[in-house]
Amino acid sequence: MKVIRFLIKGSLKQVLIAGIVSLAAAAFYILAIRSFSDVLEYVKGDTPYAFFLLAGLVLSSALLAILASHYITNHFEFKISGQRVTLSELVLKSTFDKIEKSRDKIVPTLFNDIITLATFAKGLPDFIVSFFTVIAIWGYMFFISWQFTLIFISVFFVSISMTLASQSYLFKEEKRAIAQRNILHRRLNGLVDGLKELTLDINHKEVYAGKLIGESSDGFAKHTVNRNKVLIAVGKVSESFILISLGLIFLIATYYFETGKDFFIEFFTLITFTLPSLIRIGLFFSTLKKAEVALGQIEGMDVVLKDFEEKVASSTENHFPNTQVSDKPVISLRDVHYHYLTENDKAFTVGPFNLEIFKNEILLINGGNGSGKTTLIKLLTGLYIPSKGQITFADRVVDSQLLPEYRNIYSAVFADSFVFQDLGYINHSKVDELREKYLDLLEIRDKVDVENGIKLSTTNLSFGQKSRLNLFRSLLEDKEFYVFDEWAANQDPYFKNKFYTEIIPGLKKDGKTVIIISHDDQFYHVADRRITVSQGQVTQH
Q: Which of 360, 298, 339 is nearest to 113 (CA)?
């Protein structure tokens, strides 16, 4: 019942309102059932008042039930939406390196488990309406015959007990299915991200699809089938038990109780009208464990993300006003180290990084693969927090209080940067001017437009064009410091030349500081300074 407590928490008022409306709907339902006898006594030629009354009562009951269901559904839908937003906010508050390593677990939870919980929550309003409908009808049945009502209620609870008895098995199968689903999600990501490499190798392609994806997909299917098999079996057994028990009750009552035919008609009519609501209640309990496993995943991720949360202080004060050009460095890295932790809990360290960056310079960084260039950039921009050493900006140590504001001085385009379509976050007076300038400079005016000033019309372009879109977004941000991680590596010679000889000098002319990771030695002359990263350390040139 943990998942029900989660959904009901903070929602008691809404549940009670829905319950009261459902009771009213059930009352009209009971009156409609009672009016059936009047309809049956209709005589040809009379005005069918009883039918009109029946129709009015049935429609009123249905309308109230719809209102109750809509009211509580609306509440739970937005509650689940709030949970999704809360988890997303926790991701954004977490340390970058922790999220970077946990991506394969976070995305399935944010998508699949939230949807599972939302699907379960959609059934809760129906359960609430059905529950109060059953309570109202049982109350009336109790008034007619408390003995028969107690017998019928006992039959129903035995049926529900069969469903609850299967919950332990369902819980285990659902956990196994989710474990396989997470593996499958990771491998499907690999299918898309590594499509070039897989396409080029027949053996790798066959093994990846047939063995790796097939193995996890079959595992997910197996545990899902096991779960559904038990659900169907329990549902059919419970249904059969109720129907057989009702027949047995009727036979026993015929032999041992002196009751009239009219009593049985009314009593069993009430039972008949109760059965759909009882079936919905049974279905609700059958999906309970699936929702509880999803909630466990969400709560587990919530705990993990809170543990990942950066302990940074919020401040509205501007600690980093625009800096001026001088012979003193504006940014300094002093004996900065970063510790990596592998999956086997083995640590290795890069550093020490000692580096000075001056205002309005073009700094070029080169080095071999795995030398530590990207780690250096992530430390420099505040994405990674140094394990040892310190970063200073304008002679101020960048501590936890200053870190968010320090990060905000940068605009960066990484080699694997995501192409965001949204531009609504950019808010300054120069957007219109810069937009026209850079659409022409990057020669993408015929490829993309800015809709309503806040959204790119498309991101469905070639890889090189997507890189230009990312550069376009970065330039529109109009930040003081720019970082480009091998941006020109995937550009044709024309745009590569344009990047180094027009765009970069143009940024310097506008007073920007530009830091470039590059292996294009024919353009090294564009830089004011060049450093080489080797084995996690910096060499000045």
A: 298
Residue 75 phi/psi, 5-degree rounding, is -65, -50
Q: What are phi and psi of 484, to 5 degrees?
A: -125, 115
| 39 Cβ neighbours under 8 A, 6+ residues apart | 48, 50, 51, 54
Strand-pair partners of 488: none
Q: Per residue in 17-75, pLDDT tens?
A: 887 887 888 788 778 777 766 666 655 656 667 778 878 888 888 888 888 877 877 77
DSSP state letter for 528? S
Longest CA span, the chain? 109
Structure confidence by residue, pLDDT tens digits, 113-129:
777 777 777 677 777 77
How many helical (H) and strand (E) elements, i.e. helices and strands, does the chain have?
19, 12
pLDDT band at 260 (very low <50, low <70, confident <90, very high): low
Q: Which residues contact 503 (CB under 8 A, 6 or more apart)?
A: 441, 471, 475
Place of tokens 């309102």: 17
Q: Tell whether the torsion through CA atoms of 393, 395, 400 and 402 is positive or negative.
A: negative
Angle between helices 214-256 and 146-165 (to 10 degrees): 160
Contact yes or no for 423/455 (Cβ under 8 A): yes
Residue 345 tokens read as: 């809990």
Question: What mean pLDDT, rounded, does the chain reach?
Answer: 78
Contacts of 373 (CB under 8 A, 6+ apart): 365, 366, 367, 485, 517, 533
CB 365 within 8 A of CB 516: yes
CA distances from 492 to 49, 360, 489, 503 (A): 84, 28, 8, 15
Residue 28 in tokens: 């009209």
Token pair 């965001």 is found at 420
- Say whether 41 sits in a helix, a strand or coil: coil
Peptide bond into 108 cis (omega under 30): no
**Residue 383 C-beta-side C-alpha neighbours within 13 Å:** 15
CB atoms within 10 A of CB 489: 14
**Closest-CA residue to 515 (of 354, 341, 363):** 363
Cα–Cα distance measured from residue 491 to residue 481, given in angstroms and rounded to the nearest whole number = 22
**Phi, psi dihedral angles at 332 (to 5 degrees):** -135, 135
With contact defined as beta carbons under 8 Å apart, do 481 and 330 qualify?
A: no
* Strands annotated E in 306-422: 331-341, 347-357, 362-366, 388-393, 396-397, 410-413
Query: Which three-class secondary structure string do you get for 471-483?
Result: HHHHHHHCCCEEE
Q: Which whole-number Å values give the CA distances from 29 to 34, 281, 518, in the listed order?
A: 9, 18, 75
> Which amino acid type is present at position 361?
E
At residue 352, φ and ψ (nearest 5 deg) are -80, 140
Strands 347-357 and 331-341: antiparallel
Residue 186 CA to residue 146 CA, distance in Å, equals 58
Q: What is the DSSP string of 400-450?
A: TTTHHHHHTTEEEE-TT-----B-TT--STTHHHHHHHHHHHTT-TTT--E
Joined tokens for residue 492: 């044709």
Beta bridge partners of 516: 364, 484
